[in-house]
Amino acid sequence: GQQVMQIPQYQHVQEGEDFTTYCNSSTTLSNIQWYKQRPGGHPVFLIQLVKSGEVKKQKRLTFQFGEAKKNSSLHITATQTTDVGTYFCAGYQELGGGSNYKLTFGKGTLLTVNP
Amino acid sequence: SQTIHQWPATLVQPVGSPLSLECTVEGTSNPNLYWYRQAAGRGLQLLFYSVGIGQISSEVPQNLSASRPQDRQFILSSKKLLLSDSGFYLCAWSAGSDTQYFGPGTRLTVL
């Protein structure tokens, strides 16, 4: 079955340093989504990437979708303490049919930021 | 706008007791509904999903079950809880294959 691997599991940085988390799928994806979960909270949707090679930015966050649509990355420039949380990627794969699809979450990367 | 509710927010139950967690969605029709479990604050394990009333797909065999008695209501149940059922239970909805929106979750501790 489809697997979505995410690395690293944990990342501790000093405030102001950059941070990157990587996501790799065993199969080609229709799209990839990124979510953020603050400590004690629930996952919140950040962005969706659909096109091969797509790059999207949200302020200090840059999201990339690989050319082969099997990998993705999230890069945060100059981290702040508000960036603390677990970042999940989720790969969407169509299995055929109108509602036959699967969204598989990676295990997430826990980011901690030292002020 | 759409909102998703879960209750209770926290729950402490003895081993062997029954469980019923409820999730309701407002502001949308015929949503896809999901139950996830998150153990130790990390990965999301999909337990059940539903594309319509009475339609439940199970991802992982276990002592839990799900039901969808109404279009915007999703219930997670167990007849007898195990210690391993402890975790953070999240309900989510999506409009077809679109983004998933998560509820606030229920923290379940089985003692």
Key features of this structure:
heterodimer; A: 115 residues; mainly beta; Immunoglobulin-like; six-stranded mixed β-sheet; B: 111 residues; seven-stranded mixed β-sheet; four-stranded antiparallel β-sheet; 0% helix
Question: Mind explaining what this structure looks like?
Answer:
The complex is a heterodimer of chains A (115) and B (111). With 115 residues, chain A is an all-beta fold. Chain A has one domain: Sandwich (Immunoglobulin-like), CATH 2.60.40.10. Chain A is built from no helices and 11 strands. In chain A, strands 2, 4, 5, 9, 10 and 11 form a 6-stranded mixed sheet that branches. A 5-stranded antiparallel sheet of chain A has the order 1-3-8-7-6, with no helix packed on it. Chain A starts with a strand and ends with a strand. Chain B is an all-beta fold and 111 residues long. Chain B has one domain: Immunoglobulins (Immunoglobulin-like, Sandwich). Chain B is built from no helices and 11 strands. In chain B, strands 2, 4, 5, 6, 9, 10 and 11 form a 7-stranded mixed sheet that branches. In chain B, β9 (87-94) and β10 (100-102) form a beta hairpin. Chain B is globular and about 40 Å long. The termini of chain B are far apart. The A-B interface holds A 30, 33, 39, 41-45, 48, 86, 88, 90, 92, 94, 99, 101, 103, 105-108, 110 and B 32, 41-44, 46, 51, 90, 94, 96-97, 99-105.
